[in-house]
Each structure stands twice: as structure tokens, then as C-alpha cells.
Design goal:
Layout (H helix, E strand, L loop, with lengths): L34 H11 L9 H6 L1 H14 L7 H25 L4 H26 L2 H28 L11 H18 L2 H6 L3 H30 L9
Helix pairs in contact: 3-4, 3-5, 4-5, 4-7, 5-6, 6-9
């Protein structure tokens, strides 16, 4: 549920210098429709955040937002209007997740490794909770399909982490779509379900895992090709070694 995300308290504007030896808070430029506007909002808000609030505190707020998403899905079984709560959790998680790392860099708080680890661990928790909320809302095979989608979205996140380990570049946008667009899509989905009910979702849901898995295959192909090219460029730059291998 990703150009690039930094750590340090976790995601946000590309400001400050990454800690030497650790590149989890270095940034590949975001390439998604909302990225430029999002960065302008972050740059405007960060200097205005009260001094008693720190980036790591914003990171940890993902825990209650995750709990709220699950509660909203459970309550929406009786009344779809509770999906407004789910949308509020999506917005609040975007807000804190976008500002935590930018604030950490702005304040020079200096915990990029902790930020990288906790931010992205909690990103996974929130993704699982948000989709798990839909699993609570639906029943039978539809519930199973929502649980399958947790695994598929988790695979995208694993791809990002493994790619970062191989390249030192942490990319979280896929085919021009990032976390902000994904959250917005879920907010729109919630609004439509409140207005029209869940019937259209039940009709489309069986196709969603196939579509998303196909996109995942494309992302993996492009990622491994990029890593292969990096290896080949480094191999060509190395002096020839008798008996050496790739």
C-alpha cells in the first residue's frame, strides 16, 4: 500500500543530509500524481508543528490509527456510515506518516535507523489493518479475498525492502502510484460504499487479486532488470580476474 520514502522518523520531505553509512533516509524523487503537492504541504507544515511534538511520536501514532481502521470495519457491518471513521484513519495516518520523517530531519533528531525500521514496520501494520477492516465488513469468499489482498500488497512492500538492500534506493511508488494515491483510492472506495452499498465491490473483488498480482509481476521484472544492469556496470568496471565469475 510507493518513488521513495525516507526514514529518520520516517517519510516526508527530502531535506537534510542522510547519516553517513545509512541510506534509508535518502530519497529517490517521488513520481506520482500527488507527490509535488504533498511535498509542498509537508514543507509548509513542518516548521509550524509545536516543539513538544517529535517525529518519532508521529510515527507511533500509526498504532492507534491501525486499531481504528479495524474497529471501523467491524462496526460498518451494521452501518456503512462507520466507513467515515475508516476514511478518517486513512487521512490521519497519511498526515502523521508524511510528517514524521520530515520533522525528524528538520529538528535534526538523529534516529534514522529507528525511524526506517519502525516507520515501515508500522506501514505494514496499517496496511494489514486497513484491508483487514474490509475483511471484517465482508463475509464468506469475499472476506478471504480481502485477506489475499493483504498478502499481495505485502509483496509490494517486501519488493521495496529487498530492492533497497540491493540498490541503496528506497522506492515506494509502483507504475506511478504511491501510498498517498492508494490511501485516496480507499477513501473514495469508502465514500462510494457509504452511498451505494457494497454490491459493486462484491462484483469486482474476485478480479482484484489477479490484476494486482499482474502489476506485481511487472514491478518485479523491472526491479530485477534494474539490479541486473547495476551488477553488469560494476562488473565491467572491475579489473579482469583470471578464473573470476559474475
Amino acid at each position: 500500500m510507493a518513488g521513495q520514502k525516507k526514514a529518520g522518523g520516517a517519510s516526508g520531505a527530502d531535506e537534510g543530509k542522510p547519516e553517513e553509512g545509512f541510506r534509508g533516509d535518502s530519497k529517490v524523487p517521488l513520481r506520482s500524481p500527488l507527490a509535488a503537492g504533498e511535498q509542498r504541504i509537508i514543507r509548509f507544515l513542518v516548521p509550524r508543528i509545536p516543539g513538544r511534538i517529535e517525529g518519532y511520536q508521529l510515527t507511533l501514532l500509526t498504532i492507534p490509527w491501525s486499531a481504528g481502521a479495524l474497529v471501523a470495519g467491524y462496526l460498518a457491518r451494521d452501518n456503512n456510515s462507520w466507513l467515515w471513521l475508516a476514511s478518517a484513519m486513512l487521512f490521519l495516518q497519511w498526515f502523521t506518516d508524511s510528517l514524521d520523517g520530515a520533522l525528524g530531519k528538520y529538528r535534526d533528531f538523529g534516529i534514522p535507523r529507528w525511524g526506517y525500521y519502525m516507520d515501515h514496520l508500522l506501514d505494514y501494520l496499517f496496511m494489514a489493518a486497513a484491508l483487514g477492516g474490509y475483511a471484517l465488513l465482508f463475509e464468506g469468499s469475499d472476506r478471504t479475498l480481502w485477506l489475499v489482498l493483504i498478502a499481495v500488497f505485502g509483496a509490494f512492500m517486501v519488493n521495496s525492502y529487498l530492492s533497497f538492500g540491493a540498490t541503496g534506493e528506497f522506492k515506494i511508488t509502483f507504475l506511478g502510484t504511491g501510498p498517498t494515491e492508494s490511501r485516496l483510492a480507499l477513501i473514495i472506495l469508502n465514500t462510494l460504499m457509504i452511498i451505494f452499498g457494497t454490491g459493486f465491490v462484491e462484483a469486482a473483488l474476485p478480479y482484484a487479486p489477479y490484476v494486482l498480482f499482474s502489476i506485481f509481476i511487472i514491478v518485479v521484472y523491472r526491479t530485477q532488470r534494474h539490479i541486473w544492469q547495476m551488477d553488469m556496470e560494476e562488473k565491467r568496471a572491475r579489473p579482469d580476474r583470471p578464473g573470476g565469475s559474475a
